[in-house]
Amino acid sequence: MSTLTSAPAERLPHPLVVRTVALDLPGAPATPAAAPPTDGTLPEADPTDLLDLLPAPGSEAADGAAPLAWVRRGDGLVGWGELLRFEVAGAERFAQAERAWREVLAHAVVRDEVQLPGTGPVAFGSFAFDEHSAAGGVVVVPRVVVGRRGGRAWLTTMTVGAALGPVPDLAELVGAPPAPASPGAVTYGDGAVTADGWRDVVAAGIAAVRDGEVDKVVLARDVEARTEHPLDVRWALQRLAHGYSSCWTFSVDGMLGATPELLVRSEKGLVTSRVLAGTIRRTGDDAADLARAAILAHSSKDLEEHEYAVRSVAHALEPFCSSTNVPDVPFVLHLPNVLHLASDVTGVLGGEAHAHPSSLALAAALHPTAAVCGTPTQAAATLIRRIEGMDRARYAGPVGWFGADGDGEWGIALRSAQTSAADPHRVRLFAGCGIVAASDPAAELAESEAKLVPMRTAIGSD
Ligand SMILES: C=C(O[C@H]1C=CC=C(C(=O)O)[C@@H]1O)C(=O)O
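^ thats the input. predicted complex w/ ISC below
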């Protein structure tokens, strides 16, 4: 693995050599002729088909690095082996990451026999929420990527060399990874702020809204988990993908989770963002939850929170788009733990395709949205720094992947946790809540607990 902070291509002894070939995964025929079926439906993939391929920690293939994943409903990308790693920091972290990736690509030799979004060269990234955070950001170029999309699958290998090697073989690259072992019992402790202390943080946030310092602020907290056995990230990813299939299950550099919120997907000039804000807990009873969905859809407090988030995304996309579509009314997204108000904002990038901003540049322009920071953005960010009492690190920052043409997908790292490279028993879980004038500290604490459920379940053993 090479860790580079600047001018990566100049320091590479040879160009990046990339080869993508079609693959025969379950539910993903290697030959396009065999798919899609005549009834128009796509073959069902198990949500963990891709995740099952990830090598075990400590194995030669894992290369000492955390697994890479971006998976939803069985489609997506998994990657392993750290061929290149770029660490970035500060306000320029996104631009630095983009520059590093472009420099590598400028010297790449690519043979892509599949030609779909996610084939050819691919890099994964994860970035700190706050430009002042020591967590900065990282871009990882894996040695191996396996992808699946709409019934087709592929294998990409990336090396640094002089020429294309032989056709890569999945069986040789993967072997038969052992199933992840349970992390055993998990104990929980306070994070940077205790639960009681966080109620006071929320109360301070409400006071700031009522005083007119901000219209909305999103406040977050962390809890510390300790697993009996070292956490195998694959264990958590498989449980997240099964339990939260409508979310994007991600893992980059030890930041993992299942986010319901897509910051931006950019594909062939079409931009999509799934905006969430406004939440109600589920009860576990379907009839009661339907009634709660109706309450949420009409709650002025939640609709206000949501409106700020949608406006911030639409406003940030406008300069790049020739047209945008912003739904007038949100829909209710049903997750196993909570219900959210959700809006899918779309746009068409303006100008010539070669001049389109990359998906990461769009993510940088959108970040931080009012769903994770507040309104107005700068005042909310300042308030968060003053009262939240913790470094969010990469929680609530952009996480995802991009390819050689800049297209890609970036989620907001929510319902997430950060593992520790130094201590494989330690996991830091995060959750946050949008605060407006009508918020109540006890209700927000309960909401944050509901938002911790996906990661608590993912690292649990039952
Ligand atoms: C900040 C988080 O959620 C955001 C996304 C959806 C709904 C939210 C809310 O209703 O407060 C938050 O804005 C989190 O899950 O940590």
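Residues 2-174 form one domain.
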